[in-house]
Amino acid sequence: MNSIRSTYLVAWREATERARSRAYIVSTVFTFLLVGGLIAMVAFIDRGPSSYTVAVAGATPKGLAASIDTVATASNVLVDPLFYPDALSARNAVADGTVDAAVIDDDTIVVHDRGSTVETILSTALRQARLLARLDALGVDPGAVADPGTISVVATAPPQDDSGQGMATATIVLLFLVITTYGQWVLLGVLEEKSTHVVEQVVSSTSVRSLLAGKVIGIGILGLGQLAVIIAGAVVAGSVFHAFDLPSATYATAAWSLVWFLLGFAFYAVLYAAAASLVSRSEDAQAAAMPVALFGVASYLVALSVVLPNPESTASRLISLLPPVAPIAFPARIGIGDAPVWEILLGMAITMVAIVIVVRLAARIYAGAILSGGGRMKPLQAWRASRELASR
Amino acid sequence: MLELADLAKRYGEVVALDGAGVVARPGRIVGFLGPNGAGKTTAMRSIFGLVALDGGTVTWQGRPIDAAARLRFGYMPEQRGLYPKMRVAAQVSWLGRLRGMSKVDAARSTTQWLGQLGLGDRANDRVEALSHGNQQRVQLAASLVHEPDLLVLDEPFSGLDPIGVDAMSDVIRTRAEAGATIVFSSHQLDLVEGICQDVVIIDRGRVVVSGTIDEVRTGAPSRRLDVVFADPAVRWEPDDARPLRKHDGSHAFMVPRDADPAAYLSAASRAGAVAAFSFQPPRLSEIFREAVGR
């Protein structure tokens, strides 16, 4: 009972002290603004088709308006024709920027600068209108020429939900970043306690296991909070700016991401803690944590390069079951919408078993090393030392 | 009662503890003394289970020490350590809660101890902003906040100025008068001989001398003889004395315990005019040197 209370107190200290730290506030606000800003920017840039206003004056070919509409639609732009009484006023409207371009009679296009999109559209449309007018003059029915019948389009690639892919990519990047960032916080937190020797004071009134568990839980809560804020920010910003049609799996992906963050964080954080407990100086910390960091980066790359492009391949399905990869691969697969529930549950079960093993291993190394003085310790030395300190 | 007995610990080839022991009783102040590297810190850490002993027993009230018992202990480790970025009061009261105090009690006790140690106006400063001496006081507050039954202080006087030493001694005495059991270590034997009531002097992991301060000093086989001559040029040395030092007419010797002081005074007076004379039990450092023969 007492160890639960001291674990809670350690976690409470970690969470409240760090939540008040400038680093946490700045990084939360910054990530929130970054995610929201990116989505707003995408919405701003990709505001659907761009539109042009075009002056039309004089004796233009009969089918011009219809031609402009057809060509504009094909080019994914909107062109709005405005009729002007004479050539001069149309020309002036282009010069002063009231309209983007003008078509005068059946042989002149006025633009502000040569080489613009609107010039291409208008010249194609004008040529087509003149062609139809000539055919008409020759007695051919322009309607029959303009509509040559339906054309069927066959795609060789299976239909793909692009927004699902985009969300999956974002999920992988986000989870990797958050797990790594907060894993590093655990690394630095353990190092601080050891290098300042405050660990002696703390452990004199609690156990090393409570200290380790409380630290990981406290920092994990902060990471979970930040991740929830980012995801909420992305979902809200996405729907406010209509930057993208939210894929059907959005809410499921968001919820699962939080669950998988907890699993992934538990897995990596205790390893970071064990690595940090082996050293006393910050210069040595990154070197000691290198194997853990490499594991994380390798899992990230595998998730991005193997699982993401072919989520349904056997290799992807097997790889995403591996505990180091599962926490970032599964949310992505859920986002794409291809992960069966039984596979998700199997992945979780395997990851949880791995977490239990890793926690026992790492906690033992931590217990053996955190109270040792002097230089860098090897994991095996720490393992042996912990046997003697079993009572803690 | 705290009882450490037959402690043994090796670090590879280095012997830290080789049979040393300490007994500390409620209301008494035990000075656990010895040179650097004698094994004091290892013995003190063993009380908190911070070191795995190779042998020996550590008991409190006759029972092995468990986590619950430790909550009633206060500890000031040799390597001082606090969270540098945490605020002073928050840190002290958090440590109080970690030892089982309620939030309210911990806050109240923190305010009281910080006030008593002269840190009342620094309560909301970050620990790293404090001077070394003030950090040391925070450390003391951290070990006292829960008013422990056993107070273990590892080198509490090191790094303190004379006023700091007095303040630390006052706190230690007050806690002992309140009934707490107190063990503190020091390598500055003469500095603390006025503070401790019981003494355990160890060297190379073994107890060299132990007992109450009076037993140890009066029971020493020698006495210290100090003679100051008015004329610094006077040379004098009794036959049965071991000279300690000679400086500007001031002579110090170790002489047998049962020697007659009056005989020395008259002999010295024959050598020159005596300005000052004393014959008293030796200081702890001298007792230690005689005991280990160094």
Written description of the protein model:
The complex is a heterodimer of chains A (392) and B (294). A 4-stranded mixed β-sheet of chain A has the order 2-1-3-4, sandwiched between helices. Helix content of chain A is 69%, strand content 5%. In chain A, a hairpin with a 3-residue loop joins strand 3 and strand 4. Chain A is mainly alpha-helical. In chain A, helix 7 runs parallel beside helix 10, helix 7 runs antiparallel to helix 11 and helix 7 runs antiparallel to helix 13. The mean pLDDT of chain A is 84. Chain A is elongated. The longest helix of chain A is centred in the middle third of the chain and has 34 residues. With 294 residues, chain B is α/β, with parallel strands linked by helices. Chain B is built from 10 helices and 14 strands. A 6-stranded mixed β-sheet of chain B has the order 6-7-8-3-9-10, with helices on both faces. Chain B has a 4-stranded antiparallel β-sheet with strand order 2-1-4-5, with helices on one face. Chain B is globular and about 70 Å long. Classes of the chains: A mainly alpha (392), B alpha/beta (294). At the A-B interface, helix 1 and helix 8 of A face helix 2 and helix 3 of B.
Which characteristics define this entry?
heterodimer, A: 392 residues, mainly alpha, 4-stranded mixed beta sheet, 15 helices, 69% helix, elongated, B: 294 residues, alpha/beta, 6-stranded mixed beta sheet, 10 helices
SSE layout:
The complex is a heterodimer of chains A (392) and B (294).
Chain A: H1 2-19, H2 22-45, E1 51-57, H3 64-74, E2 78-83, H4 87-95, E3 101-104, E4 108-111, H5 117-137, H6 142-146, H7 162-195, H8 198-203, H9 208-241, H10 250-277, H11 282-307, H12 314-319, H13 326-336, H14 341-369, H15 379-388
Parallel strand pairs in A: 1-2, 1-3
Antiparallel strand pairs in A: 3-4
Helix pairs in contact in A: 1-9, 2-9, 3-5, 7-9, 7-10, 7-11, 7-13, 9-10, 10-11, 10-13, 10-14, 11-13, 14-15
Chain B: E1 2-11, E2 14-24, E3 29-33, H1 40-47, E4 55-60, E5 63-64, H2 67-70, E6 73-76, H3 88-98, H4 103-116, H5 132-144, E7 150-153, H6 162-177, E8 181-186, H7 189-192, E9 198-203, E10 206-212, H8 213-218, E11 222-229, E12 242-247, E13 250-256, H9 261-271, E14 274-280, H10 284-292
Parallel strand pairs in B: 3-8, 3-9, 6-7, 7-8
Antiparallel strand pairs in B: 1-2, 1-4, 4-5, 9-10, 11-13, 11-14, 12-13
Helix pairs in contact in B: 3-4, 3-5
